[in-house]
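Summary for the funding panel

The consortium committed to producing paired sequence-structure records for every protein in the target list. Below we show the first two records in order, beginning with the earlier of the two.
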Amino acid sequence: MILPTAAQSYAMSRHMARALGVNVIPCDADTRTALVKWSRWHHPGCPRVTEEEYAGFAALAASRERRGIRTAWQLLPGSGRLASFDVDDPTQVDRLQELHGETPLVVRSPTAGHAHLWYRWPNGVDLGCVSQESLPGYAVKARGGAIHAPGSVHKSGAGWYRASLPVAERILDLLARLPFLDLAALDADRVARMDFDAYGNVPESW
């Protein structure tokens, strides 16, 4: 499979970052380790990555490519008051959209069944990340979190992350079309997972 070049991957990731109003940073494609310090860029009201800084990111990716090292790109949802459900269980994709509303932005991984569903935070809410250990088959990436952007190459080399929308539609009012996630539904999932962890493996004779 022919993968996007460093320049193409960067361009696709920046395009989506602009549409969503979030920051995007480079990371190592194999280890997913960020290549820059990003603590100042992941929360609501944080500074925007400057054009000069982005130019430096692109130059870094190009330099790594010349040395045979792949660079991936991660969006920082919290910088735009957004959340992405990082779904490993394919049965959760439809279920989550029934609970929180159908989102126009679903990013698919080359890994079968793995998807990222994008939502806005409800007004007045400051939402942090929620780990998959606390939820049934998915995690929430929000303030303090990072998630692969469309155009970012997968660590397996089997492909790249692809958005559900055609390129021409990704910029037009995308942010306004994202539904607000349902906090009550999210909390219900957390409680259900806690109950399962506490009682799911209890012997019948208990």
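The next record, for a separate protein in the list, is shown here:
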Amino acid sequence: MNNYFYKIAKFDIDQSLLYNEWFHVATKHDMFDKTIKFIENDDGMEVYNHKLVYKIYHRLRINYPSSMSSDMDPVMIQGYNSHVEYIGYSIDNIIDDFKGSYTEKIARQVHDYLLEKYPALYITSIKYHSISPKSSLTLHVDNSTIPRFFLSASVPEGCYMQINDEKIPMHETGALFRMMCKVLHNPINESEDYRVSMIFDVAYR
């Protein structure tokens, strides 16, 4: 087992419910077109190294920091409004679109599990990450020494996390992975559908 990306738990989830809620909120807020249009129409801003890559990578907030409001646009666009603050987040600050939803129920279950398992950490941003069918990013290293946690919400067979030269399957429904991002890695989706994960960012107390 590698020390950078590995399963730590499994949750009993209904992946179709999570997928449907994710897709409903994503389309309500025009997430897919909004991301593409921003990338194609940026006004010379030095935002992306690989613009074509990020057209297939989407983020949707589930909770929000206290500096924002519950009715904010949940669509996060890399390099524009994707900065993650590490203060003011709470599991009780749920975006309006997800309040009382199955998404919130599962987010709370994972949130409580992580706090019990890792008492030195607290949860900051919770969001959906999705990758388009037949797509991948590129091998890259994130500038962070803090772990990140991935719940396989709706992940078809053919989806992997590449760590250096190793491809680790992610398609087990409800699997929760711990990742250290300061290593060469690349999410890969070789399937015919979206790869949807729920991401839990953390910080040290």
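Regarding this second record: The first helix runs from residue 15 to 28. Helices lie at 15-28, 31-41, 51-54, 102-117.
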